[in-house]
Design brief:
It is a single chain. The chain has 216 residues and is of the alpha/beta class. The protein is built from seven helices and nine strands; from the N terminus they run βαβαββαββααβααββ. It has helices at residues 27-36, 55-63, 79-91, 121-134, 144-152, 166-179, 185-188; strands at 19-24, 44-48, 68-73, 77-78, 95-102, 105-108, 157-158, 191-195, 201-205.
């Protein structure tokens, strides 16, 4: 079975990280995090980037050590930029997760690393968008046409979250602080978080999306 690559030997992965580094393209979110979360927090670092597809972002990523968790917060969310950032970090075998506003809610993907072969943030957002778009009165599963539309539409831009909802903002900051605690990594590698306008968090299991190439 091993020779045929039908099974693989179990590997012992390091399930800890020493520091969480947050990148966001939202000036409001960046300012909010600096005001609420102490700058002297040794476990957290915040960075503002005008666009993730930039030399500035790539340069900062290349300076980071392997024991860092990278959190990308997109607002606005550009699907093309989101996909590019996920592919870039996956190629580096970086430890990362994503966050973004969508459908009047705010989402955090699960923590992902390529060598773990768990569901990636692209799996998460693809499942999320396809399921919400095709949910109707009688159907709750994504249709084939919905998936095809998503694949070919690379310029989807979603509404900017205004960050004026206090309850939601506090829960977003709480989520960042919880991610900074590596002791909960096993939980956050397999679940994603949904934050509603009332500031309530719901968690659900992350699954692989059939059309994502993260397992290749």
């Amino acid at each position: 079975l091993l020779d045929s690559q039908l099974i693989e030997e179990e590997k012992n992965f390091n399930l800890e990280y020493k520091r969480t580094v947050v990148f966001t393209n939202s000036q409001k979110m960046y300012s909010l995090m600096l005001k609420v979360i102490a700058e002297k927090n040794s476990n957290l670092e915040f960075n503002y980037v005008n666009t993730f597809q930039s030399k500035e972002f790539v340069s900062k990523i290349n300076e980071l050590l392997n024991d860092r968790l990278i959190v990308l917060i997109f607002s606005p969310l550009d699907l093309n930029e989101y996909t590019w950032a996920c592919d870039y970090l996956r190629k580096r075998n970086a430890l990362y997760c994503t966050a973004f506003p969508y459908n009047s809610k705010f989402y955090f993907s699960n923590i992902y690393k390529y060598e773990w072969k768990n569901a990636c943030p692209k799996c998460f957002i693809s499942e999320l968008i396809s399921s919400l778009r095709s949910t109707g009165k009688f159907y709750s599963m994504p249709t084939f046409q919905t998936v095809i539309d998503i694949i070919y539409n690379e310029n989807i831009k979603f509404k900017i979250y205004d960050f004026n909802n206090l309850s939601m903002n506090l829960e977003i900051l709480k989520a960042v602080l919880e991610l900074a605690d590596s002791k909960r990594i096993e939980f956050f590698t397999s679940t994603h978080r949904e934050i509603d306008k009332n500031g309530s968090s719901n968690f659900d299991q992350c699954v692989h999306w059939e059309l994502c190439n993260c397992l290749e």
